[in-house]
Amino acid sequence: MSTSTPHPFDKAIALQHSDLRAGHFTGTTSPDYWNMVGPFGGTTAAVALQAVLQHPDLLGTPIALTVNYAAALEAGAFDVQATAVRTNRSTQHWTVQITQPGASGAPNMTTTATVVTAARRETWGRSDLAMPEVPKPEAVEPIRIGPAGVAWVQQYEMRPFSGGIPAQWDGSLQHSETRIWVRDAQARPLDLPSLAAMSDVFYPRIWLRRARHVPAGTVSITTYFHADAAQLAEVGTGFLLGQATGQQFFNGFFDQTAQLWSEAGVLLATSNQIVYYKE
Amino acid sequence: MSTSTPHPFDKAIALQHSDLRAGHFTGTTSPDYWNMVGPFGGTTAAVALQAVLQHPDLLGTPIALTVNYAAALEAGAFDVQATAVRTNRSTQHWTVQITQPGASGAPNMTTTATVVTAARRETWGRSDLAMPEVPKPEAVEPIRIGPAGVAWVQQYEMRPFSGGIPAQWDGSLQHSETRIWVRDAQARPLDLPSLAAMSDVFYPRIWLRRARHVPAGTVSITTYFHADAAQLAEVGTGFLLGQATGQQFFNGFFDQTAQLWSEAGVLLATSNQIVYYKE
User: Fold this and answer.
1) Chain-wide mean pLDDT for chain B?
2) Which of A64, A171, A253, B114 could make a disulfide contact with B220, Cβ separation 3.0–4.6 Å?
């Protein structure tokens, strides 16, 4: 029996089940990962993934996760429904929905997701996206986050060395690329749910691109996983190199591409999201 | 009354409905866009989008489309169910499923998709992904496709000028980037379904990366649209510049990122997919 306190991330994505095979789970939003008007989208993505990972019918490991943020979750309990809609010999397709009880009693759809899992086999492999040459994590200062900041940011140790949050919101235009070293603030060995969450730690590219603090929020994120248990174990509680860049900013939405490498240079995850922004 | 023959693409994505508001549609696979063991994935993506576009409850225009290829469609009739699971003030979230009658009578799930639509407003805009300097389409020879090729390829006029299909399957390693000019072989004004389809015209990056013709197939694709009616009209029947690059090739799956610009240099769509490959 362990008497140690669970990690805040494990608390945030903890799910209970009434009927495991039916894929119905319940959870509770975490104040530790609260964002401005709802939970950090990274934890919501991790919750969707976690439901699939806990399902007894799971085949293989996740390779693709798409999460659509239909509405901000309210603080409190939520329901997760994970359904294996198709199981092939080596791949499996899941749909996931996160709902909360609505005012009228009808469920309130907050999140839809799809997950593809697969039984991977060892094959030839290579990368066409080499880790850029960057300073070591120890050579970069962590950002200091005051108590006025949103809660979830405090759960990560972030060491940005280019493209940090603009010091002045002066409307100057610049390229939207950010590079940071990142890991859980409280040590926790990397797994796929935390990799899914860390794919969403980058602040909105529009803030950097325009040096303007406009309202912005992720509408949909897709993350591809390129890691199995060995790659994750090699990282352990170490840093990931994160890179995020805006691509096209057009009439209220921009897309943002992101990569996460291990310190050893292995590309563990590639992620893309489309983000709402206000003029 | 028009007596002209419909364009093959319009035939391929044509949907009938029994109950429009219920979002239930039927269609038929097109021999014109047949791939090796099923329809070209681009048309399947376009069908999912088309169901949303034809739904009377549609809010705004598509900004994000994720399509998961759970199983190859068999030649013949299919059912499409498009459901608006959440409608907000300016965004709307859809789930789409494409099924075919199964051997036992139970529906056979072939495709799941999610679509986000939005009422766009004019805002500040800019690109951080400029069109590369490339030769004009007129300066590039179209590839000649013999009758032995798969059908769908013949529906596109493709003018690759770098990263073409290897002339020899000699196992030599090279970078996985391809650049082509592409448009419908039979002239058709660009719209969002054809933009969705053209996001998937690139042959598997693994063939180029390894100069090996291994089995490969898209498992999931996500496309973000950065164009509205004005951008699409400006393209008309003109060429798009397509660029596709592999990122991480690992244990049976690689991801492939793609961009489509208008000839005038507007980034119209960005797309990512994860692709199965066999050693």
Assistant:
1) 95
2) A64
Chain B residue nearest residue A250, CA to CA: B125
The CATH number of the domain holding residue A143 is 2.40.160.210
Domain contains B134:
no
In chain A, residues with a C-beta closer than 8 Å to the C-beta of B220 are: 64, 66, 114, 116, 222
B contacts of A70 (beta carbons < 8 Å): 85-86, 88, 91, 93
A130 assigned to some structural domain = no
Q: How far is Cα B273 from Cα B66, in angstroms, rounded to an integer?
A: 9
Put simply, the answer to whether B124 touches A210 (Cβ < 8 Å) is yes
Average pLDDT of the residues in B185-203: 98
Cβ distance B62 to B119 under 8 Å? no
Kindly report the nearest CA distance between residue B86 and chain A, in angstroms: 6
Same domain, B91 and B186: no
Residues in chain A with CB shorter than 8 Å from the CB of B45 are none
Q: What's the confidence (pLDDT) of residue A8? A: 98
In this structure, is residue A110 part of a structural domain? yes
pLDDT at B145: 72
Cβ-based neighbours of B46, under 8 Å, separated by 6 or more:
B9, B12, B13, B193, B194, B196, B197
**Do A145 and A111 reside in the same domain of the chain?**
no
Residue A267 has pLDDT above 90, yes or no: yes
Examine the fold and report which residue of B58, B87, B118 is the final residue of a domain before the chain moves on: B118
Q: What would the pLDDT profile of B208-237 be if each residue is shown by its tens digit?
A: 999 999 999 999 999 999 998 999 999 999
Residue B146 has pLDDT above 80, yes or no: no
A240 and A150 in a common domain = yes
Residue B111: which pLDDT band, with cuts at 50, 70 and 90?
very high
**In terms of domains, do A249 and A161 share one?**
yes
The nearest CA of chain B is from the CA of A122 a distance in Å of 5
Q: Where are the beta strands (DSSP E) in chain A?
A: 16-19, 24-28, 61-69, 77-87, 91-101, 107-118, 126-127, 156-162, 178-184, 216-225, 240-250, 253-262, 267-277
What's the average model confidence in pLDDT over A110-120? 98
Q: Which chain B residue shows the shortest CA-CA distance from A129?
A: B247
Same structural domain for residues A113 and A33?
yes
Residues A74, A29 share a domain: yes
Name the residue range of residue A97's domain: 8-118
Weakest mean pLDDT among A253-262, B148-157, B213-222: B148-157
Is B12 contained in some domain?
yes
- At A19 the pLDDT is 83
Residues B96, B172, single domain; the answer is: no
Residues A262 and A233 in one domain: yes
The residue among A86, A118, A150 that closes a domain is A118
- B128 → closest Cβ in A128, A245, A278: A245
Query: Between chains, do A219 and B91 touch, taking CB under 8 Å as contact?
Result: yes
**Set of chain A residues whose Cβ sits within 8 Å of the Cβ of B177:** 128
Instruction: Over range A21-50, report the average pLDDT.
Output: 96
What does the pLDDT read at residue A146? 65
Q: How many domains does chain B have?
A: 2
Determine which of A59, A214, A248 to mutate to test the interface with B (most B C-beta atoms within 10 Å): A248
Q: Which of B121, B173, B205 is the closest to A251 by Cβ?
A: B121
Q: What is the arithmetic mean of pLDDT over A121-132?
A: 96
